[in-house]
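// run 5 | inverse folding | seed 20
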């Protein structure tokens, strides 16, 4: 799990000690680009697993979603970090009604380290963030093939935190992580996106498996035929 710069974020952050009754579950989904494909189902409570073929680099369009229950949130702020030289060249966040986008810092800055800091949205009126499958925003992930054939993106609470209007932190989780106090910057650190390089597409794997079954069947028939001939 990627933990760079967490200590600095904690030192510089606003700290909210109370944990409210709101639950916020956040995840990421692949929308297209880069000739990539999903390696597993995507959605709430899941790590986004993407496969790629070829040498790249790959520009992947990723959307961020949240389901917020119980109590609306008036502040949502996230930081992403990479364990390779991946980067995020563009990002657009969708603020709640009557609110404003909090632009990301550190865009176009390759990892390892933070690649998008303190992004999200905030408001102090209206309903804030509340509901299922809320589209929080979309960004382009510029993934560069690594010698380890894997890029891991981790999310954590940004300096603007995830909180209610009374500054109480929400119970927050990213992907398949556990719920933590979203009112403390650096909390809820979780791997949320994994890009695997040099992976055969699922259709190719299916053809390989089908061919292997055909060969095994022919070999089995050949052995049976040999055994029959020996008994005559």
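// decoded
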């Amino acid at each position: 799990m990627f933990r760079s710069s967490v200590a600095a974020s904690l030192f510089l952050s606003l700290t909210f000690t109370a944990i409210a009754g709101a639950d916020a579950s956040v995840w990421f989904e692949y929308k297209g680009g880069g000739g990539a494909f999903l390696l597993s189902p995507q959605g709430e409570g899941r790590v986004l697993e993407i496969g790629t073929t070829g040498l790249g680099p790959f520009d992947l369009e990723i959307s961020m979603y949240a389901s917020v229950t119980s109590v609306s949130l008036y502040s949502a702020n996230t930081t992403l970090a990479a364990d390779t030289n991946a980067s995020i060249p563009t990002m657009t966040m969708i603020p709640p009604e009557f609110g404003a986008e909090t632009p990301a810092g550190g865009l176009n800055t390759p990892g390892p380290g933070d690649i998008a800091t303190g992004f999200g949205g905030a408001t102090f009126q209206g309903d804030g963030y509340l509901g299922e499958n809320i589209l929080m925003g979309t960004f382009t992930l510029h993934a560069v093939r690594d010698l380890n054939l894997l890029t891991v993106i981790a999310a954590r609470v940004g300096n603007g935190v995830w909180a209610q209007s009374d500054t109480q932190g929400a119970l927050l989780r990213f992907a398949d992580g556990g719920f933590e106090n979203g009112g403390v910057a650096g909390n809820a650190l979780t791997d949320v996106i994994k890009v695997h390089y040099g992976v055969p597409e699922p259709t190719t794997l299916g053809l390989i498996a089908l061919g292997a079954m055909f060969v095994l069947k022919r070999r089995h028939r050949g052995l049976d035929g040999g055994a029959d001939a020996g008994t005559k």
